[in-house]
Design goal:
The structure is a single chain. The chain is α/β, with parallel strands linked by helices. It has one domain: Rossmann fold, CATH 3.40.50.300. Helix content is 34%, strand content 22%. The protein is built from eleven helices and ten strands. The protein has helices at 14-17, 22-25, 79-86, 109-119, 135-139, 141-145, 154-163, 179-191, 209-226, 237-240, 263-275; strands at 37-46, 53-63, 68-72, 94-99, 102-103, 120-124, 197-201, 229-233, 245-250, 253-259. The strands form two sheets. Strands 6-7-8-3-9-10 form a six-stranded mixed sheet. A four-stranded antiparallel sheet has the order 2-1-4-5, covered by helices on one side. The N and C termini lie far apart (47 Å). It binds adenosine-5'-diphosphate (ADP) and magnesium ion. Adenosine-5'-diphosphate (ADP) is lined by residues 46, 53, 55, 73, 75-81. Residues 1-29 are annotated as: Disordered.
Length: 276
């Protein structure tokens, strides 16, 4: 009952699995308002003096609503740091990040938390599930935490549960399902409130091949069908090849900004970056 829904020949057409739900899209209580995400000359350094590391170094980039952007680069090139800055999980040493007309630097920690909760979804390798809640309750955590958030759009919630093959597991506790299934629960929870921006850091890293493909198809489907902005860090050229755009970081700097690129070309590019 728990095998992933995606056949081995993936990525499948994600839009076939996740039709848009226009009535929810137009609901102003959902956060799915299309807002441009923009980093302007952002830098983030760690340490001081000779030990100073520029984890992100003067990066300027826009992310259009309705697009999936992959962020690649060697280990330590600043991918996670950039994503944390874009998500307001970390504040830049200099430069700024805006989402629509909101300047993240200008927000208090509370307002930033609220913005993240309402407008952003996070798919990270280190995910959290609550052992004392059922799978279904775990998926609905965004609505349990905040009384002012509109309840889940049932159609959208059902799509996620189907796409992540969670239906047979809804009544179980996290302790009664596998690690990969727990991760799928966390992914459903990250998307159930229809965020305008989804950040994924190595989302397929811990998953088996078939589940990884279905998660990738789900993420790829969010952009065109939900008008969502998806930013996905990955070292996997096959994953990055489904993106509309590929950014490559090296030593904290943006060194390539490519339109959709095939996996073989991306592999070559990554080998060249690692060898530099
Ligand atoms: N909290 C931190 N303290 C000190 N250095 C850090 C911290 N986080 C990241 N770095 C350094 O910043 C650089 C970029 O890290 P990171 O963004 O995690 O890279 P990536 O995700 O591409 O592997 C690395 O040199 C890393 O060691
Ligand atoms: Mg990282």
């Amino acid at each position: 009952m728990t095998s992933p829904p995606t056949p081995a020949s993936a990525p499948t057409s994600p839009s076939a699995r996740i039709p848009p739900t226009p009535q929810a899209r137009e609901s102003s209580t959902y956060a799915s308002v299309r807002r441009l995400l923009r980093a302007t000359r952002v830098s983030r350094g760690y340490g001081s003096g000779h030990g100073r590391v520029a984890a992100v170094d003067d990066v300027t980039v826009d992310f259009d609503p309705g697009t999936l952007t992959a962020v690649m680069g060697p280990s330590g090139s600043g991918k996670s740091t950039l994503m944390h800055l874009l998500a307001g999980l970390d504040r830049p040493s200099s430069g700024g990040v805006t989402l629509g007309d909101q300047d993240l630097n200008a927000l208090s920690d509370d307002d930033l938390t609220r913005l993240r909760r309402d407008a952003m979804g996070f798919v990270f390798q280190a995910f959290t599930v609550f052992d004392d809640l059922s799978v279904a309750e775990n998926v609905d955590v965004p609505f349990r935490l905040a009384r002012d958030v509109a309840p889940a759009d049932p159609q959208w919630r059902a799509h996620l549960i189907d796409a992540l093959d969670l239906a047979p597991l809804l009544a179980r506790r996290p302790t009664e399902i596998s690690g990969g299934q727990q991760q799928r629960v966390a992914i459903a929870r990250a998307l159930v409130h229809r965020p305008s921006v989804v950040f994924a850091d190595e989302p397929t890293g811990n998953l088996d091949l078939a589940t990884g493909r279905s998660v990738l198809a789900l993420l790829a489907g969010l952009a065109p069908t939900q008008g969502c902005t998806v930013v996905m860090v990955t070292h996997d050229p096959a994953a990055a090849a489904v993106a509309d755009r590929v950014l490559v970081l090296a030593d904290g700097r943006l060194v390539h900004d490519l339109p959709r690129t095939d996996a073989a070309t991306l592999s070559q590019l990554m080998l060249a970056e690692v060898a530099r």
